[in-house]
């Protein structure tokens, strides 16, 4: 697969080079990536408890705060996911966090017990959304839209047993892309698979595979195309042994199948899909999985799931058990459930499992022991002298007004060393220094934190000089 | 106030020029900006109802979906707000949508009835967050943080009477910036006011004013600094007549006050604040409001609110009643409520009323009758001939892999005119066309939708040529 030209911004490239290089540590425990995150949360829960048992500050079970460090990682990953969705022409959409309870009823089979209901405080009965798919279908039906290519990023809530140690949360973020509408077969389906490949390649998480549920393919062929179960199972033999594209090739070389008109027709859509996936250059990423089955009521066709292949790259390194990082499928009947006249709008879509991806990147970050900047401040305004607060305030306002990201200490008379340490600790690259001497001469000292070199710049040229330096770095 | 160098991206500038110019219509009703949004929602509720009374697709009262058009506006506005927060060195933070019920208890005075509780489904009692301030204070206490400059963007929920026509929703977005920590007086407070000014100037919403609650200033002076109520009320006479900075000047010229040592001391912080605001170049934006009072339990000092001054620019145009678009204040006691040992962490912060800002921009957009692009697609892949689906798929994958935003129709054999119309309707600037002739010659036709000019480009140079054109436009 070619290197995807995702045009990553310099910041992302820099972050990735910090975060995604092979870990220093030679051994990663199988579930370590999640348990450490969870531990941090649990520890912070417990500390106040240990000090004063009657007073416990907690957050709800199965939820977590995202610290500034985590937010930086999250923001970069979401940026990449959304930019891929936009590259494929998707429009944005937002829906409320809760829906009428009846909107969610009968959409999630045995999982409906996991839906969070709101208390009946008078008025409507409401539930927190369980995914972004049902609200999307409701939106299409409510607005009588017959086609739409949309993405949505948002939180969803599920009352799962809070096994935080395995990295599952009761509140988590979903990133969905869906294509609604009646189109020629398999073209939107192929694009959804292409999108998953672009995102997983772009994030440089390592090798991956997309597994299609064989059970659903078989069902499609037998129930809808009328292929005999025996022939379907013969095809299944191949599925078990071979990957996606080689499966198709082998089947058409097998005289028992290729001379069976019914079998050929039953395989038509699948063949078409793999033809398109080949043109997209991703056919070798897709294979069949005999154990995969639909978890949700609304899927009507083949479902798929993407898994990372964590081959140990260093001796003694155990493979990370990260599970599915993306999933999707076709749901042709869901919109009709919301339409008064039962009009169908066929849909196909995918969901990126960003929480798991966050966990992986976080884990790699921890193992690399590199510090991630949690602010973007470019310039610090400092003084070596007392009674220069007013000069600093005037100077920093000039920088802000010029769009420069700037900070100073909220102290009347901070020590110069304290100010310079702050820059080193937080990764601020430039310092402007104003003191008596500078004020007399109408200059400002501009200091590079890395090289510790200082030059005097005429006050009126300061903004231009800073902007020049920032554009070069 | 100087033009803020917010370095707006070209897209933002283009959007603004479309959206924020004076409306064509000569008359805007006072609440029209909200009622139209609401009508759109209500209409879509009612249509299915009219067709089949027993089957109503609805969303919860007081909530709304955001259409792709609305999402474009929202994204641009949030980008500008967040970039200002980052310019001031703030870190990102995220907290769960719900908190333990007890976390929110006794924080909102008579408003606590507006909190959404979750149903007791076994386990903890939970409530949806009412604002982003209380979760921030809980986060600080839980993690024993003594200082932090953070921003947070997220939804909050309030069970207000759903008067959608006035633009109030039960689910809405908040953008908060807060500075926690013990610092020298009035420096962080001044920065918060500066941030409000930068954001409101940067969004080009028209002139605005920040009103400080006089009642709280008086209370501070009398209760905390020991100023006699009579002297405080004498100061209040000025407050009523004059704006912020002139108030301070006049008071120090008045012998009754300037010769009163107690009065001078009581006014010390206020004088300091206005000195800093003057250095920031925003003192003339601040005035006092005798009617403004705290709405929330946790505020401990002066509160402020920013309002837009919608002076009618055209004859017959009524002023828009948009109310407060930003608010904030000091809350020095809130964190201690969550700390087992009652340790205080003084805080000051602000919240941008982005929902009202969205409404204003949306309204201007409607009045201007300009179409906003809801996708960012740069190139459309077309063919004039039948049986060219596979060629199109191969070509579009090349573009995606090069990071180019590209779309095609999901049809085997679409008509060329349909394809070109799609580009014109959705604002896609470039079309690449592949047909028999092009394939034979190893070229692709590149067409500009605006000029309708076509040139043949060697296939191997296509990506480079497209990237060149896009960087120039």
Automatic annotation (TrEMBL), chains A, B:
CDD domains: HisRS-like_core, HisRS_anticodon. Pfam families: HGTP_anticodon (PF03129), tRNA-synt_His (PF13393). InterPro entries: aa-tRNA-synth_II, aa-tRNA-synth_II/BPL/LPL, Anticodon-bd, Anticodon-bd_dom_sf, HisRS-like_core, HisRS/HisZ, HisRS_anticodon. Its EC number is 6.1.1.21. It comes from the Eukaryota. One of its GO terms (cellular component) is cytosol. It catalyses: tRNA(His) + L-histidine + ATP = L-histidyl-tRNA(His) + AMP + diphosphate + H(+). GO terms for molecular function: ATP binding; histidine-tRNA ligase activity; identical protein binding; RNA binding. Residues 62-384 form the Aminoacyl-transfer RNA synthetases class-II family profile domain. L-histidine binds at residues 131-133, 158, 174, 178, 294, 298-299. One of its GO terms (biological process) is histidyl-tRNA aminoacylation. Keywords: Aminoacyl-tRNA synthetase, ATP-binding, Ligase, Nucleotide-binding, Protein biosynthesis. Belongs to the class-II aminoacyl-tRNA synthetase family. This is histidine--tRNA ligase. It comes from Sciurus vulgaris.
